[in-house]
Amino acid sequence: MMQIVSSLKKRRTYYNIKKELPVSIENVIEIVEEITELVPDAFNMKSSRLVIVYGEMQNKLWDKIYDTFGGKVPREKIDSFLAGYGTILYFYDSKVVSDMQSKFPTYAANFPVWANQASGMLQLAVWSGLRELEIGASLQHYNPVIDKAVKELLNIPEEYVLIAQMPFGAIGEEPAQKEKEDIKKRVTIIS
User: Fold this and answer.
1) Which residues contact 147 (CB under 8 A, 6 or more apart)?
2) What is the spatial distance between Cα 18 and Cα 85, in angstroms, rounded to a whole number?
């Protein structure tokens, strides 16, 4: 079996994570940086921006997210993310996107779409890479509600557009098995 297929099979949504890692945080940072460099972006615009938060800032981040929702998101749910070792925040740089729009006006409407596509590829690649390190993660989307609070807390440039949050940590529990789907409903073959 191809290594990429094997890696994708291991990648799951892990809600039960712990404030520890089976490897050093330096290993995590190294794999995130390497994957970020390798994942393609339309016109090679390099629009993706990642912020890795851990340590005391991990607690502050998820407490701030909880506070931003004013109790409308259950504390237990937020605490399950706070329980992780860290969180990767995925952004794209809107200045890079607008510069590309000016440079290539024919494709201007596509650059924000392409930035989101590149981020999606990067999220999946990092998620799979973390799992290869025996680290569990999940992908969360509390934006745009949390955007301003997160940017203020972490001193993030205003032109960064928050796309997703990926809490990660040691695997506390394996998720239930996924049911095999009838893939023919989603893949059409034409010859």
Assistant:
1) 162
2) 6
Residue with tokens 């945080």: 25
Q: Is 63 left (phi over 0), alpha (psi -120 to 50) or beta?
A: alpha
Please report, in tens digits, the pLDDT of each residue of the chain (191 residues total).
589 999 999 999 999 999 999 999 999 999 999 999 999 999 999 999 999 999 999 999 999 999 999 999 999 999 999 999 999 999 999 999 999 999 999 999 999 999 999 999 999 999 999 999 999 999 999 999 999 999 999 999 999 999 999 999 999 999 998 899 999 999 999 99
Name residue 47's amino acid: S
- Separation of alpha carbons 191 and 59, rounded Å: 53
- Six-digit token pair at 167? 């809490």
Nearest to 85 by CA among 141, 164, 24, 40: 24
| Entry pTM | 0.96
Q: Is the peptide bond before 144 cis (omega within 30 degrees of 0)?
A: yes
Query: Closest by alpha carbon to 165, among 73, 40, 100?
Result: 73
Alpha-carbon distances of 51 from 16, 88, 114, rounded to whole Å: 22, 6, 20
